[in-house]
Amino acid sequence: MSTEDHTEDNGVPAGVTELPAAHGQSLDQASAQPVTASLTRILPEATLARLTQYLRALIKLKASGELRTSSGVLATAAGVNPAILRKDLSLLGSYGTRGVGYVVVELTEHISKALGLLQQWRVAIIGAGNLGRALSGYGGFRSRGFEIAALLDAAPEVIGTTVGDMEVQDIADLESIVQRSKANMAVLSVPGISAQDLCDKLVDCGVRSILSFAPVVLNVPAGVNLRRVDLATELQILAYHAQNLEA
Ligand SMILES: NC(=O)c1ccc[n+]([C@@H]2O[C@H](COP(=O)([O-])OP(=O)(O)OC[C@H]3O[C@@H](n4cnc5c(N)ncnc54)[C@H](O)[C@@H]3O)[C@@H](O)[C@H]2O)c1
Questions:
Q1: What are the distances in angstroms from CA 173 to CA 66, 102, 192?
Q2: How close is the Cα of 140 to the center of ligand 1, in Å?
Q3: What is the pTM of this model?
Q4: Ligand 1 atom, smallest distance to 194 CA
Q5: Which domain does 84 fall in, by range?
Q6: Fewer C-beta neighbours within 10 Å, C or N terminus of the chain?
Q7: 132 is in an annotated binding site
Q8: Are 36 and 11 in contact (CB under 8 A)?
Q9: Quick check: CB of 218 below 6 Å from ligand 1?
Q10: Are residues 226 and 178 in the same domain?
């Protein structure tokens, strides 16, 4: 969540790393580590988080008509140290040109490509309660390339209701809805007790990228990426740091 440097990235060594294949890894509840289960070239987690900040800053620079930028300007806009930014971008093979800096459009495309944002992501939100409804109405997803493809729930009183221009559909029709809506990503905003079963069903439907808000550890098979968001954990970490500041 933070853009600060977590240099060694939760155990992932700095630099581009080859990870061995893993089977049915589960997500460490506290660390929000990704569960990735294929032999892939990956970037450090902290670098990935910062790349999203660079991208956001570049989009702003582009909107204000800037054609080129320097590591100093971009680092300030993204709230990181320029040396870290240069190291992150070097991992992508983007070194900029001495005295010229980075071409905004080129670097935007380079980072977008590295983050997998040049392909279309269509997100099914599972669970149309407080969180699911709020997420489905959030305009920031679409502007960053994530289309809300479907919103599903199991409760009869919720199915058929609308959130914005989206109708809540019946989870019993998950497979056909995933196919029809071409959803290739899912968000789980359901109670913990339902989360593993729904996760398994999504995987059976071919969804390989899942973001879970449910407060439980989930298991996914090889080839499926799972991430967990836990605001309560973030608050606990914040409390720890606040306590240390006061000491
Ligand atoms: N990670 C975070 O930071 C964070 C923050 C808030 C909430 N949460 C978690 O997110 C989840 C949702 O929270 P909420 O406040 O929206 O709860 P909610 O009770 O308002 O909504 C949950 C929805 O899930 C639906 N549901 C239950 N079982 C289902 C199933 N099998 N298939 C489809 N839909 C099903 C319910 O009908 C309900 O509409 C909870 O697990 C909560 O703990 C996490």
A1: 48, 48, 21
A2: 21
A3: 0.80
A4: 31
A5: 9-24+38-114
A6: C
A7: yes
A8: no
A9: no
A10: yes
